[in-house]
Predict the structure.
Amino acid sequence: MALGREKRPEMKSAFTIGRIAELACSMEVLAPKPGNVYPGAEWNFTNTTVMDFLKSAKAISSVFDQADCLTVGDLVLKSIQATQLQVATNTNLGQVLLLAPLAVALAESGELSESTVHKVLQQLTIDDSIKVYEAIRLAKPGGMGQKPDQDIHSLPTQSLLQIMQMVQAEDGIAEAYATDFRKVFHTGRSALYQSIYAGKSWSDGVVDCHMELLSMGDTLIRRKAGSEAEVNIQQRARSVLNLKSDPIRYAESLKEFDRFLRVNGNRLNPGTTADLVTATLFVALAEGEMQVPIDLDQLLDKYNPSPSGA
């Protein structure tokens, strides 16, 4: 899988795979998505900033440019290692876990679909599991807990897909693997493209995508605050979405929802949703349906992240 390719198929996007990954991660954090880190909304995240996410996005770019000669496990592990040279916190484990199969599928076939991703997922091995486990231990995400089988602190004995299938009911990243990225290709992409075709700004499109995905639940919220809190957030997200036909009320409701999600630190941070948004942006950029906004470079220049962390 993704090894020894003599000729890479032509992609629809003019960008390299690494650049697409960097853009997807950068656009995700720069859009004002309720409950997450974005410019001017870092106050309830005491150890994570917009700069951290932008540095992380840049750090993985060169790794993802090697997607045509690396396995999914290699991509994940090397990306987390590169990220840890730049930031001291877990900024992108979920993003990298989702982007890696997409990047390999894009490198192998030149296009992204459920079928091309399915092919990559079916070829995942125990070696992929071993490397992903190492990456997870390096990133140290919260709320992992212990498992009676295939625990993160043990040596995995099943393929990465098999392990993801085992825990799909409790983890949104695992669910993506187990369902050929169904939410990304359907819910996320549909919401994003609907906004794009309606002439909305890129950041508004990202927010709409975020809200649609959040209305289907967020397993990070469930792990931190419980299933009742997750259901409550789902219902609130759907109520906000019901106001989309009234732009003024919708904008006001988004702000109110954002404030609500930040009341108790980042306990209600919809982090899994943000990761799915990033994956959706990767698909849209790879397909050439989403153009890089003309103001993006200005936003990036404001923060000016550099590989050296300067």
